[in-house]
Amino acid sequence: MTVSRTICLGFLTVIAVGTILLMMPFSTSDGSWNDPIVALFTSTSAVCVTGLSVVDPGTYFSFWGQLFILLLAQIGGLGYMTTTTFLITLIGRKFNLRQKIAIQQALDRPGMSDSTQVLRSIIATTLIFEITGTFLLLPAFVPEYGWDQGLWLAIFHSINAWNNAGFSLFKDNLIGYQSSYLVVFTITGLIILGGIGYQVILEAYLWLRDRLLKRTTNLVFSLDFKVATSTTLILLFIGVIAFFAIETRNPETFGSLNLRGQLLLAWFQSVTPRTAGFNTIDIGKMTTAGLFITIAMMFIGASPGGTGGGMKTTTLRVLTSCTKTILQGKEEVLLYERKIAVSLILKAVGVVVGSVGMVIFSTILIALTDPKLDFIQILFEVVSAFATVGLSTGITGSVSIAAKLILIVTMYVGRVGVLLLMAAVLGDPRPTRIHYPEENLLVG
Amino acid sequence: MTVSRTICLGFLTVIAVGTILLMMPFSTSDGSWNDPIVALFTSTSAVCVTGLSVVDPGTYFSFWGQLFILLLAQIGGLGYMTTTTFLITLIGRKFNLRQKIAIQQALDRPGMSDSTQVLRSIIATTLIFEITGTFLLLPAFVPEYGWDQGLWLAIFHSINAWNNAGFSLFKDNLIGYQSSYLVVFTITGLIILGGIGYQVILEAYLWLRDRLLKRTTNLVFSLDFKVATSTTLILLFIGVIAFFAIETRNPETFGSLNLRGQLLLAWFQSVTPRTAGFNTIDIGKMTTAGLFITIAMMFIGASPGGTGGGMKTTTLRVLTSCTKTILQGKEEVLLYERKIAVSLILKAVGVVVGSVGMVIFSTILIALTDPKLDFIQILFEVVSAFATVGLSTGITGSVSIAAKLILIVTMYVGRVGVLLLMAAVLGDPRPTRIHYPEENLLVG
Ligand SMILES: [K+]
Ligand SMILES: [K+]
User: Fold this and answer.
1) The pLDDT of residue B99
2) Where are the transmembrane segments (chains A, B) (predicted)?
3) Which of A255, B90, B133, B279 lies at a C-alpha separation of 20 to 30 Å from A143?
4) Rounded to 5 degrees, what are φ and ψ at A276?
5) What are the tens digits of pLDDT across the range A357-388?
6) Which of residues 241-260 of A touch B (CB under 8 A)?
7) ipTM, 2 decimals?
8) How far is CA A48 from CA A18, A24, A408, in A?
């Protein structure tokens, strides 16, 4: 079986197992057999680390149901990291010689490309951050809910934040903690680091270690590192400015708070579309402009190799660099003085075409099954599902069963990736050596 | 002055002259000085062959006002063709040797690339189609409105259809003629041929002449021809099926008519987003799904070298071919067994990035200036303005002055093209010969 098919079927298998577990009477809080659609939706949402939910997970599911959701989200989140990293080693990620030497020197061990070791390192990173996050959240939850419930809440939200899964056990998500520095910065920290990609964290760790040990190495940051960190920072900055400028005049979201509270909200709303799915304001009450900006940010999504979804920050940068290149009349696309291969540009175009196509298709279908909904609510929900974000204007639970099934498919397609899914369906590419004559074409 | 600056300033000049003419008392039907915003909006809409209107042109403007609109639309429409053709000869359109010989043999004259002759040929084509259109429309308008008014209506709508300008002198646009075969097929024929590009019409003419004269030439259809015609046909087919499937259940648009009338409506609604702007149903009454499909079709737009706007059919095909290529694991992007140059792919990406950016930017601004509007109404209006379509859900006249100014800018940017405008602002590209090392990047 091809790699792409293995991945696609692997996710389907985990979703199926999760659905069966969540259908069991011990998974629901009232002890009855669960509605199959609710179980399927929740399992898909968890495995795809989306966080959209047709029910309130905190009251609908028993402790066991909540634990299954957490495990499914952890498998899904680890899946993101390991799958991507596995694929990288598989396609033979091309470091240049200087980088390879630098990385190996920094690691002090030449066996870096050994996949078992990479996997172990990813799991270790995950555990370190999730445990740290849990400890940081304890002071926020234990005083109010006691040790038993408080610890569970801290574990649940820490793991959900790191994996960008976005399930919350609070009825109003994290709105109750909108002004808590501790909760806001712990959660956003986990979201950003979990979503920025394992490669980036590894490089930052190596750099930091060398600085602390005052070692002199010629460690060169990879292009992935530079693009992921710079794009994430730019998007966060734009987001904070935009949400602050737009929503402060909206009394139902930012308006009632003081300046410090508004900045905290703007920060959280800027982080969460990349692609966490937690919210500290009522998304359904946002202005049209705020919702549309959120949709755009959700669609861009996180960085590759992390736990987040979307079309990815790197894809965006490749496309904007193409635009810059054509405006400068050049032929070589550059990013940080590195040439971008044509195949990479084609892949970026493919990702965007496939993603836009899928979003348009799902949006039209839901517009047909649920014609009473506002267009922006449908588009918001579809992009949220596709980019595995999990934010919602509040319609998830009330849409028709057909729309729920469409959202389930959208989450799955968005999770495995349009290109990977197509490759799984069409079979592996067979390269050809025939060359064709070139011809010009009028474009744009 | 650079070519891009000449074009940008040229359009601004025509818009300014048009605004002054439309402000004059003899341009309005009540003989008073016109509102500057109305004059500016109408002049921009006419020169950019958009057809969006903040007033009802049939009653608001005098005969002279209507004539100015027609002349501005004609200048704008010819501008599309000549500007593009001029640019093609300027950038030294690369025909391969076989094509060049074939074209020259077909034309029986080697001076084909002479721009004066091309211009003359474009004007002749325009006149032939506009006059034919006028004659075909006469039987529809003269019986009802008499010779004077009927002739004027025929001329006005024929010229507007060919130039994809979309202004109508009827209060309800062409809804009154939704079941008239003559009007529907004359108008849609003009729209399609005007929007498909001069190059395509020329090649079709040469092919037809050779067939009729039973001459044997080795005329090879250009890639432009193949891509423009096939994509136009595919989109029209999809449009008819989609609108028929969706809107037949909507009693306010298709529902009240019989099957033949519904097919005629589906055909017209499928043609008009590419990018004519006439309508035979009340756009504001369409379903959400129908509106969204129309938005997508408007954004794609017409073929380059014609009178239509949008991101262009060829751009879409280059992008879908890139997607196909990456799925097949190839490096060379092919269209009809011709290789697409990397610079062309970059241009296509640039067009899409610029267009999407502009649409998002304008949409957010109008969502801020007019927060009470439905999101889909705003998006529809902005895409309609940007792709110079002219369809509207009916809000054009009632939006705030700020929103009107945003729409004016959007029409202008959409008309001259984001890339051309950027080139005009940034100055001409200065190619460099420095080569950079290549580096891989995680995408999507
Ligand atoms: K999520
Ligand atoms: K138009």
Assistant:
1) 45
2) 6-25, 67-91, 118-138, 182-207, 227-246, 283-302, 344-368, 375-395, 401-426
3) A255
4) -80, -50
5) 999 999 999 999 988 888 999 999 999 999 98
6) 246
7) 0.85
8) 12, 21, 10
